Amino acid sequence: METHSKTVTIEHFSDMLCIWAYISQIRVDEVCQNFPGEVRFVYHFVPVFGDVQSKIRQAWKDRGGFSGYARHVREAVAQFEHCQIHESLWEGDQVPASSGSPHLFVKALQVLERDGTFRDVRVAGRSVCEEVAWRLRQLFFQEGRDIARLEVQLAVAEELKLARAPIEEALHDGRAMAGLMHDIKIAEGYQVMGSPTYVLNGGRQKLYGNVGYRVIEANVKEMLRVPGNQASWC
């Protein structure tokens, strides 16, 4: 069996309300499962749904507005057996105002992972940041909950028995916001077009949108195979 000593870093850019990021989570999980210790995901957020009302009204004003977009999401999910969505998703009274709020909450958790507060905490094999992000996505897509609301976010943290005080401090003192602003700056540097986007090899390899698992796998394998002093042919 071929072995590798290097670790491939994949910078993962997504929006919490993006249906394609929700659909593609299974591919991220499969990469982690198939390349244990060889692949490291670094998570960033991009504000595709930073202003939900403006985005839907402008982009879907001639295609049915929120109802048209909800229909589009249902059609997208129908192609994938592993995904379920709430019957009134994007049409009920729980539509979030902005993805920025859940992004900020997860960035607070990343801050606390870096400073050691949650660094060694694992939930279902994931880091705190990964698990909370996934649970918030599930609440929105599967249960139709408004995940922009702080009480919904804090309820997830409470369910996982995460200390509330350090999370609130990271939100209040600006550290979480600094992390979110840094994400936007990195995304602009890589010219990230949307969600999800996977960036490898310092920006030389960039995979955007509904990319199949085998495409991601091929890029990872090439990065693992190529010696560090050569450029990848991907």
What is shown here, in short?
This protein has 234 residues and is α+β, with helices and mostly antiparallel strands.
Give me the strand/helix succession: EHEHHHEEHHHHEEH
Gross morphology: globular
- Strand pairing plus helix content: what structural class? alpha+beta
Report the strand count.
Answer: 6
Return the average pLDDT rounded to an integer.
93
Radius of gyration based on Cα positions: 18 Å
Number of helices: 9
Question: Beta fraction of the residues?
Answer: 5-15%
**Poorly predicted segments:** none
Main β sheet profile: 4 strands, mixed
* Major beta sheet, strand line-up: 2-1-5-6
Helix content: 40-55%
Taking the alpha carbons of the first and last residues, their distance comes to 22 Å
Tell me about this structure.
With 234 residues, the chain is of the alpha+beta class. It has helices spanning 19-34, 52-59, 65-77, 100-114, 128-143, 150-159, 164-172, 175-190, 213-225; strands at 8-14, 39-45, 122-123, 126-127, 197-200, 205-208. The strands form two sheets. It has a four-stranded mixed sheet with strand order 2-1-5-6. Strands 3-4 form a two-stranded antiparallel sheet. Strand 1 (8-14), helix 1 and strand 2 (39-45) form a beta-alpha-beta unit. The chain is globular, with a radius of gyration of 18 Å. The model has no long low-confidence stretch (mean pLDDT 93).
Keywords, please?
single chain; 234 residues; 9 helices; 6 strands; alpha+beta; globular; 4-stranded mixed β-sheet; 11% strand
